[in-house]
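If your schedule permits, I should be very grateful for your opinion on a structural question. I would ask you to consider whether the tokens describe a fold that such a sequence might reasonably adopt. Thank you for your consideration; the sequence and its tokens are set out here.
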Amino acid sequence: MKNMCIQTFFFTCLTILVCFASFSCSEKSSKQEQENVQPVCWVYPTFLDFDTVTAGEHSDTVFFVVNMGGGTLHGNISESCDNFSILNGGGAYSLTTDQIRSVTLRFEPDSAGSVGCHIETGNDLCENVACIGFCKPAPACSVDPSNIDFGVVPLGLSVDTSFTITNIGEVILEGWVSMSSAGDCRYNFFFISGQGSYSLAPGESRTVKIRFDPYLGVVTCNIITGNSACGSVYCIGSGGLGGRKQ
């Protein structure tokens, strides 16, 4: 009976030791497996098409770098291209499992033509990002004259004059001729012809005729051409002789 009790005791102790050893090995193996899992890189998208951008303007877009595996994914986001720049997310990164790096890229061309660039991800596990964009020339405009001085006009009389918008660029020039709602435009200046929308091919012109029919005093008005390349036309004049028009 005594021997049986001793055997039972040793068997129980052995079982406990085996279980503890097995647990320790399993835990250690699990940790080793986690440590041995390699990073897996996913870059999306790997091709960016910025389409067509006017010279002097810009377009922004985003791509992502993701660690789909284990361990830590290291790299460095960089570029060395004219017309492209990294706004956010550039430089070194260290991504653990499921972490994401968002990268914002800007295309800002300054001359016409097709432009390409490769964004380096800095790790052989990650694809680089190919970019392409097309730059069209900015519109170019001439307005003559851009300042009009009507001088002094007696009350009850009016003076007509004109200015010309000319497309001196390589692309279609579009806009809408109108009067500013500010200042003295409303009661002193009037369109005779040429106002409203225009679409001018290279070399084409639009002549706009305006009338100054003033009240008393110095008055001003900005004629809006509707295209930043053309600016606006500043008009000034004065109504002479006392009293207001009836």
Residues 2-36 form the longest helix (35 residues). The helical segments are 2-36, 185-188.
